[in-house]
Write a structure and sequence with these properties.
Layout lengths: L7 E4 L7 H13 L3 E4 L13 H8 L3 E5 L9 H13 L4 E3 L12 H12 L1 H16 L10
Parallel strand pairs: 1-2, 2-3, 3-4
Helix pairs in contact: 4-5
């Protein structure tokens, strides 16, 4: 969990895990009253097979996080294409650097923010980089979706 608040926690899956298993895990987590932040959703091939699947995860309460390096091809062109497609669908809640240090992966939000802004707009990109991660970190309520 983040910051000891307990409501939000980072959840990572095997990259080739079926969408149905991920969805079932989310349904269980929802019963626990927890809110998962799914790490680098663009890497889960079975989730991105269909444009409806990421939104289905969000309806089950998941917050979808994207690795910022994916936007400029840090993990290859397939992941880059998926990442940009997910932004165009407006299903990404958090854009974050998956850096464990600056040598492996590296911190790359500064490089990725303009790419995200060119797809979703400056305000939405900043929300994904600043406001939404802040909500998670401080255990603040997640804004309700408007239809």
């Amino acid at each position: 969990t983040y910051n000891g608040k307990g409501e939000y926690f980072l959840l990572e899956f095997q990259r080739d895990l079926s969408h149905e298993i991920i969805l079932n895990v989310l349904k269980i987590v929802k019963r626990w009253g927890k809110r998962p932040v799914i790490a680098h959703v663009e890497r889960y091939s079975r989730v991105v097979e269909s444009p409806e699947r990421p939104e289905e995860l969000r309806r089950e309460g998941a917050i979808l996080s994207m690795d910022a390096g994916s936007l400029f091809g840090q993990f290859g062109s397939v992941i880059q294409k998926r990442a940009r497609a997910l932004l165009q669908l407006d299903v990404i809640d958090i854009l974050a650097s998956d850096a464990h240090n600056n040598e492996h992966h590296g911190f790359c939000l500064e490089k990725s923010l303009p790419i995200a802004a060119s797809i979703v707009g400056e305000a939405r990109a900043r929300e994904m980089v600043n406001a939404n991660p802040r909500r998670v970190w401080f255990g603040e309520p997640w804004p309700e979706e408007t239809p």
